[in-house]
Design brief:
The structure is a homodimer of 403-residue chains. The first copy, chain A, contains nine helices and 26 strands. With 403 residues, chain A is of the alpha+beta class. In chain A, strands 6, 7, 8, 13, 14, 16, 17 and 22 form an eight-stranded mixed beta sheet that branches. A five-stranded antiparallel beta sheet of chain A has the order 4-3-2-1-5. A five-stranded mixed beta sheet of chain A has the order 9-26-25-20-21, with no helix packed on it. In chain A, a hairpin with a 5-residue loop joins strand 25 and strand 26. At the A-B interface, strand 7, strand 10 and helix 7 of A face strand 7, strand 10 and helix 7 of B.
């Protein structure tokens, strides 16, 4: 219960409490940290300056990174304290003036993203893409069940929800012409993913184990890893995706702490063949995060995160198995979340089967890939404590014409 | 001429003046900017504080990034001013106390690296690797002559010259066994490359042209892109190199400004077929940078940068062709520099032809790939103004056993 008078069932209630960064429409307004609660934002810098919470000054910074670097004891203590401030009526008078309507703030990218890694951990997505991109080979590459395949994306073009996405241009081969041409992508797509935000750093030369996940990862964002399929298919051999991905990756403005997702843990799928020891988990679990993909207002898919073959703990262990270090603010994404059914896929490539089976949206418009002016919104929910529901996202982006 | 009394022919004379970051062995010493001249380092923060140069306070920062962000007019003005300070006898008394012996400072990573991109732009290297990794396919992929192939590497594991490199572990398939095992890489290699340091930012959604290279790129470092070939060959399909590269990338401590390399410009190779318009150059040039690869004291190769098929201006235009933005401190590397002869290759994979043709070092030791305790040093020179020679590097790294 809270003194805020939130509507029953609010998925951004006190049981959620995601963190973000915002500015207000005021000349000279600088970026500041906030916690979202319902349709309000609590100004965390002001809360710390007022002496109501203590986080070594990190809540008064312009990105979440310094707070992330403090580690789990601080994350838990601050969350517990904010919960008290928002539920104990005794604090209502002090805290109320530090809340402002969500509609009046402008969300900013919550992190200075260090490195951005994108995995490929849905067996249904990998199978679908293999069939579409490499019809003459086995759908799953031989390494797929042995390691969580991943690659580095462009950290500098991770943008916050609400940022317009300019249609990328690049080299294309229409109809597999012998020579490429240069022009706007005609196969602009989305990838619905869950992103994991690294809190505490690891040391170069030292691997993390799957058990280190809880100490090193702070929380979760939704990710739309926009993809230009025609640019990607021509460029990606032999060194992987590059310009087909690097033009924009959208993330939700509010980072949901893992602490808010404790009740969302579910067993992860059994793996076969058994994985190598550094990828084993004594407590193997996924999160029951249910995503919705909304295209111009129509829900076109409901990708289920729970069924991902590789878990975020395995991804972290793999990412560091060679001694690579992580830093506060590093982001790694699950890869496109697709379930086994057509209505559960996380990309339009799969939804329309490479464009061969267009979909009709609720307003009657027919689509294979994204057209200029289209808007895609990702949202998600997961079970919260005590029968509540935790909201994630939204991640919204509108496609604008090539410059 | 300079009042410093440098030896004739010093490749780090006033005609070079590379920038770096260093600390001194003094408790509480913080990182500060320096310019190397001969075997001395000029404390740039102290020079600016003394009012001898003006760079908006950026020379008093702990990384080069704020200075890089100022742009070419500032880069040129500061370089011109430092040249006056170090050559006009009238400044000797004021400037001398701000110089310290190179041997007494500890170089640090000069940049906070934003995004790190690695290209693949030597036709000889790509041909060699194609033959070794994909013996059943054409050596050059079909896209190779149409675009400078590149991928994102891990920015957080870019380390400064002198940092030990821990032998990475990872999934390996000895003798192409049906299932992988986990263990230390047995095929640890180097890649000798030239890295380009981005100065000024570009705007998301807007491509840079090849002509923008001079305004956006500040300078050059040598790069050793350490590579674990056995990890790489198992993991890299279909999304590219990941853990085979991400454990460490070494860069030289001193960033040589492009201004110091004006006399090193040479025509770049003619490209066939002609490239698409966004990759054309009105003034197409490479740099006559001559690299030496030294393995435990023996010069084993002399890779020539001048012959690279794709130029750094083309790489920048390609990198941003989809609207991806660049930031001050972004780093992009040329890819392994290999010439057509065995003594000109930039990797041991090529030098020993996949390990099949080991080399004998001057001390009689025989090597295919790197062994624990081995040291690799990259150095380079290029023509400077007025018949001088500009030194680049060194990049030195010693291999230590797996943790």
């Amino acid at each position: 219960m809270t003194w805020l008078g939130l509507p029953a069932g609010d998925v951004f209630g006190v049981h959620n409490l995601p963190y973000g960064v915002f500015t207000v429409d005021d000349p000279g307004s600088t970026a500041r940290l906030g916690a979202r609660v319902g349709d309000l934002v609590l100004d965390l810098g002001a809360v710390e300056r007022a002496g109501l919470v203590e986080a070594a000054g990190t809540l008064q910074c312009a990105t979440l990174n310094p707070f992330l670097a403090l580690g789990r004891p601080y994350w838990t203590a601050v969350r517990d304290r904010l919960t008290v401030l928002l539920t104990d009526e005794a604090y209502a008078e002090q805290v109320s003036p530090l809340l402002m309507p969500l509609a009046e703030v402008r969300p900013r990218l919550p992190l200075a993203v260090g490195d951005y890694v994108d995995f490929y951990s849905s067996i249904d997505h990998a199978t679908n893409v293999g069939r579409l991109f490499r019809p003459d080979s086995p759908a799953l590459p031989p390494n797929w069940r042995h390691l969580p395949i991943g690659y580095h994306g462009r950290a500098g073009t991770v943008v916050v929800s609400g940022t317009d996405v300019v249609r990328p241009s690049g080299q294309l081969r229409p109809g597999h012409a012998p020579s490429p041409v240069f022009g706007p992508s005609g196969r602009l797509d989305v990838e619905a993913e869950v992103g994991f935000v690294v809190g505490t750093a690891s040391r170069l030369g030292t691997a993390l184990s799957t058990a280190d996940f809880a100490d090193h990862v702070f929380g979760v964002v939704l990710v739309n890893d926009w993809s230009a399929r025609d640019i990607q298919s021509w460029e990606y051999q032999p060194l992987g995706p590059f310009l087909g991905k690097s033009f924009a990756t959208s993330v939700s403005a509010w980072v949901v702490p893992l602490d808010a997702l404790a009740a969302a843990r579910v067993p992860a799928p059994t793996q076969s063949p058994p994985v190598l020891p550094y990828l084993t988990e004594t407590d193997r679990y996924s999160y029951d995060i249910r995503i919705e993909v909304v295209w111009n207002g129509t829900v076109v898919s409901r990708p289920p995160f729970a069924g991902m073959y590789w878990t975020p703990a395995q991804q972290l262990a793999h990412l560091t198995a060679n001694g690579a270090s992580v830093r506060p603010g590093d982001l790694y994404a699950s890869g496109t979340v697709s379930g086994p059914q057509r209505g559960q896929v996380g990309s339009f490539l799969e939804l329309t089967w490479g464009g061969a089976e267009p979909v009709t949206l609720a307003d009657g418009r027919i689509r294979s890939f994204l057209e200029d002016g289209d808007t895609v919104t990702l949202t998600a929910t997961a079970p919260g404590t005590g029968g509540t529901v935790v909201g994630l996202g939204e991640v919204v982006g509108r496609v604008v014409a090539s410059a």
